[in-house]
Amino acid sequence: RHRIYVMLIAVFGLLALIAPNFTTTNNVISILKATSLYALVAAGFTVVMICGQLDLSVGSVVTLGGLVTIGLQAHVGWTGSILLAAVAGMLVGAVNGLLVTKAKVNSFIVTLGTMIIVQGLVFRISGGRTLTIDDFSLGMLLEKTILGILSPRVLLTLLAILGVELILQRTSPGRTFYMIGGNRDTAWHAGLAVDGMTIVAFMLSGLLAGLGGALFAITINSAPPTLGANTLMIVVAAVIIGGTSMAG
How far is it, in rounded angstroms, from Cα 146 to Cα 168? Predict the structure, then answer.
């Protein structure tokens, strides 16, 4: 039940023994900052997988979120661009959810398609170029170390993970996700909004992926068209190793 913590301690202990300076404060800070993007996206992906579905589009949505944030910051400000990145992610999630629930297409096929479409859209909008911005203020604030080893970006990620955990464990909608993943027909016969909650799960995944891309792009003050290229496989691995069943 607690194997993930045992694995974490074992890996951390091994690296502390064989890797020079692994346990230094600067290295721990770097690890936390580097993994915060994947952790944020994995929180939403977990909900989708609990429902017995997959969301292969998260990497492309991360890139889209970064592109929207950096590209529109000069026009609508940081707040507006981050909100638009979140909305863009939710829209992709809504499309995924509608195609899975209403068109009855397997989520693997649906999200593979939206992954390709969104990535193509990103290249179309950006022209294959990396978008940059001259306003470094928010990026520096998000990366500033506070409370010893934590930065605001890491704290926001932890708060998002805690929020998802509370929803899953302490609320009726959260328990509905588990019931849908356990047996979709039973959940439907129990009077639960199976299609609606599945769509919500995909929208939550898109929302957190979009926000993850936005925060990451802000900290590097740019949005390359390959921003989320390596995100998907790391997120899938994190969610499965973390204990989420691929069967729902």
Answer: 29
First-to-final CA distance of the chain: 17
The per-residue pLDDT for 185 is 93
**Cα–Cα distance for residue pair 150/29, rounded to 1 Å:** 7
E strand map for 156-245: 222-223
Distance of alpha carbon 195 from alpha carbon 65, whole angstroms:
26
Beta bridge mates, 131 = 223
Cβ-in-10-Å burial (0-12, 13-18, 19+) of 211 comes to buried
Average pLDDT over residues 114-127: 94
> Model pTM?
0.93
Q: Are strands 222-223 and 131-132 parallel, antiparallel or unpaired?
A: antiparallel
Per-residue tokens: 45: 């992906």
**pLDDT at residue 246, rounded to an integer:** 86
* DSSP symbols for 110-164: HHHHHHHHHHHHHHHHHTTPPEE-S--HHHHHHH--BTTTB-HHHHHHHHHHHHH
